[in-house]
């Protein structure tokens, strides 16, 4: 009997799942439903496009022919509005219905709107899609002043876009540094200085009280929490994601700021799986539920979910150490694993542009941030995967070159 696999979302999680299903089961029916108007593209690269440093073409990953050649039905511009988990039917906004034997939810997130006055005014951008990137690129190219909000990994992309497009920008942060959950002031200062060199001014202990607009409703700047006005005819906000799970609210699928899945990407409802940014998955290395917003992790989750969907039993486990790099500056930057949680930490500054911070939980390394020198990233990822008890070996881990043989043996091969 032919199995019908329906995949919601054509991001990297959904698309890699479809590819895996097709390879494993040449006879299966595979359908991908996406509300975007274009097939899979490289979301990581849209920031380079918005900077003006990359044309459209290399950002695209799949043409529509890619799906045709693999006999995968691709439904573009189709927003899913509900799932009937008793009848195994997905319904879209246009009334179309899709029956499934196995369902994969890989609909990712949508940028959280800033809950202040005029946060949806013309000229205030949120950044997730290629469409957003086109609007940001065009607007930044003609703007002279800007305001950036959101001291995290997406906010810094927006700041770098201003830098590349010669927009003189104020970067408003609520705390005293960029990405305060993962960096100490020592590490963050390296980033602050690099931002200043690009014409972006970090403003600390700030945040937006409201945006100001002109008579046409176009943003003119932001008033910060201290009452100061920051001029910006271009504004951009990146304060987090709301996961796209509204269509599951009336079902038994467990939601908890995302979709709860086990280490096999299974929800608690039979035949329904989830993969990518929106999962709250069981991390077998951490031994607790975790979340991860990165390309590599979403891709791997899509593959693991697909293998298990085809096998109809858990044959693959998600056991993965992710990483996320930033390439806007003259020095490289990489975060890996889970750098924002843990019960212990160690850090060292090696030079004006070299710094390292490691985080630990229950005696094990679980994540970190490397600035300037990424040469040890594979060693650190291996230590995490092997669950070595290294929290009392901080000096050795902070050596410029980590000697794996000098550390306690792996707990897991
Ligand atoms: C500007 C930017 C830069 C980034 N840089 C990096 C980086 O350097 N390194 C890194 O590792 N990660 C980076 N990321 C994060 C990375 O892109 C994501 O982690 C990854 O793309 C998540 O993939 P996904 O398939 O889970 O979700 P998504 O890529 O978000 O795909 C979900 C898809 O589902 C669609 N959808 C949503 N709701 C519905 C619905 N109701 N019906 C139908 N379709 C729906 C969405 O429109 C979307 O197309 C970046 C992200 C952005 C936006």
UniProtKB/TrEMBL annotation:
Pfam family, one: Rubredoxin_C
Record Gene3D superfamilies: 3.30.390.30, FAD/NAD(P)-binding domain
Cofactor(s) annotated in UniProt: FAD
Domain FAD/NAD(P)-binding span(s) in chain numbering: 4-283
Domain of life: Archaea
Top EC category: oxidoreductase
GO molecular function: ferredoxin-NAD+ reductase activity
UniProt entry tagged with the keyword Flavoprotein: yes
PANTHER family found in the cross-reference section: NITRITE REDUCTASE [NAD(P)H], PYRIDINE NUCLEOTIDE-DISULFIDE OXIDOREDUCTASE DOMAIN-CONTAINING
UniProt name for this protein: FAD-dependent pyridine nucleotide-disulfide oxidoreductase
Organism: Halorhabdus tiamatea SARL4B
